[in-house]
Structures are given as C-alpha cells and as structure tokens.
Amino acid sequence: MVNGGFSKKDISIREVIDQNRKTQHIKRKIEKGIPVALFLVASVSIITTIGIIFTLLSETVEFFKRVPIADFFTGTVLKPLSQNPEFGVLPLLTGTIISSLIAMLVAAPIGLMAAIYLSEYASTRVRKVLKPMLELLAGIPTIVYGFFAFTFVTPVLKNLIPSLESTNILSPGIVMGVMIIPMIASLSEDAMSSVPQSMREGALGLGSTKLEVTRKVVIPAALSGIIASFVLGISRAIGETMIVTIASGSTKNFTFDVTQSMQTMTAYIVEVTGGDAPAGSTVYYSLYAVAMTLFAFTLLMNLLARYVSKKFREEY
Asked: Thinking of the domain 78-311, which architecture would CATH place it in?
C-alpha cells in the first residue's frame, strides 16, 4: 500500500481510465462536428447557386427598368451599340436553338447507335477499349473544336453548299454534335446496361432475334435514361461558348437559314464582356438579361431531364 492506501497498479489503472475518458470526450466532439462540417461543404453549391441567381436578378431588374421586358423577348432586332440601340433577344434565341437542334441531329442517332453497340453487341474486351476511346472526345478543349469547325468543317461544307458563308451556324452545330456524342453514348449505354439480363434471355427464349430484343425490350426499358441523356445533351449544346464564338460569327441575324452567320446567347455574352460595353450602360446590363435567360433555359432543360427520368424510370 502506498500513497494513502493506493498501490502503483491502482494509480496506473486510474490514469488509463482518465485518459480513455478524455479520448472519448474528444471523439464525441469530433463526431458532433463532422455532420456540421459535411453540411457546410454540401451547402457550398447551394450558396453558390443562390449567389449567381441574386447577381443575375439584381442586374437584370436594372436592365428591364431601361428596356421594356416585352420589347426584349419579342424584338427581332439586336443592335446594342448603334446610335438607336435595340435589344430584341429573339436573334440570340434563334441562333441558340438552331445550333442546339443541329447538334442533336448529329449526336442523338450516332450516340444512341454507339450505346446500342457497346451495350448489346460488343464483347467485354471491345467495350473496354472503345468506351474510353469514345469518351476521349469529351476531354478535347472546346476551343480546339471551334478552330476545327472554322478551319476544316466550314471549307468542306462550302464545297457542298456554295452559298455557305465563312461564318455560319451549320458548321458549329455539327461540331457541337460531335462533342456531345460521348455524353449521350455513355449515359445511354449505362441505362441499357442496367436492364436485367433475364429480360434479354426471356425474349431470346421466345424466339426473338438480337435486334428485336434490343428494339422491343432493352430500349423501352432504358427509355428514361436515354431521353434524359438527350435532354442533358441539348443543355450542354445550349451552354456551349467557344465553338459558336469562333465559327458562327457575331452577326445578330434573325433567320432560320443555317448557311448564314448567327449569334448565340453565349457568344453575345463573350462579345459584351470583351470590353466594348462600359460598366453601368444599358449594353452592360443587357449582358445579365441574356445570361439570366440562358440560365432559365438551361435550368428548365435540366428539370425536364429529371422529370423524364422519374416519369419513365423502370424499377427492377
């Protein structure tokens, strides 16, 4: 017995117990702090989105104090830097929609067929090689696509369409379609690969051919994912900037002729932010009005993709 009746062994055990209590106390504090830290990290995207919306809305309101909202959304003439400026957004909307539709006409069939081959016909070894190669297209910088459209695709198309202008909406639309092929192919292939193998085997057991199984079983079962990939592809095309800025020109034509030069909303934003518009001017505030329109357009497309995915989703 030492130290008032406690042995050295008793003291060492008590020290261990005290140390464990301190350790447990620290661990409890850490455990309580982890959810808070994770919540703050998860809130970054929400806070950023709120900040973007607030910035766009505040400046857009200032623009509509100077330009009637009806004139903006129904006007067919956009001359922001003329002596009598006009701020109709329809030429930009037309250019954006037409270029996106051209892109989807290229990307949708090619991407879907690539997805069908990878999911239903390619062997495992071929799939492991082809899918990464296809996705390499997504890693090419968009400015490279823009120069490719301007210096190669446009001259080739001019030999086929003599009336094609040097800057036009057809060439960047085609190249944007090539750019979004990997997105559509990858998402569609994932959707088709998630269809249970038993459904394929059942259809084959009933005498269906491989093509009939793909067309009548796999594609309908994966329809929600396929449509969602199309909608997301359109959203990607709508938001594309460098390809249309380089290859489609800056002429603000309100036309449906794809051989002519047209401007998209993203290209207009690049033009205005290039320094021609002084801060506080109407032209400067038109930048935010167009950006807000583009933001709303893209948001609606993403919401549509989510709705389609939930509406037609198959649960297995």
From this structure: Orthogonal Bundle (1.10)
Contacts of 59 (CB under 8 A, 6+ apart): 285, 287, 288, 289
pTM of the entire structure? 0.81
**CA-only gyration radius of the chain, Å:** 29
pLDDT tens for 113-129 read: 999 998 888 888 888 88
Cβ-count burial of 90 within 10 angstroms (0-12 exposed, 13-18 middle, 19+ buried)? Answer: middle
Question: Strand (E) positions, the chain?
Answer: 78-79, 86-87
For the chain, percent helix, then strand, then coil, each to nearest 5? 75, 0, 20
Report, as an integer, the average pLDDT of 40-63.
87
Q: Name the 3-class secondary structure at 122.
A: coil
Kind of pairing between the strands at 86-87 and 78-79: antiparallel
DSSP state of 6: B
Contact 261, 168 (CB under 8 A): yes
Domain ranges of the chain: 8-66, 78-311
Task: Name the amino acid, one letter, at 232.
Answer: L
| 3-state secondary structure (DSSP) of residue 2 | strand
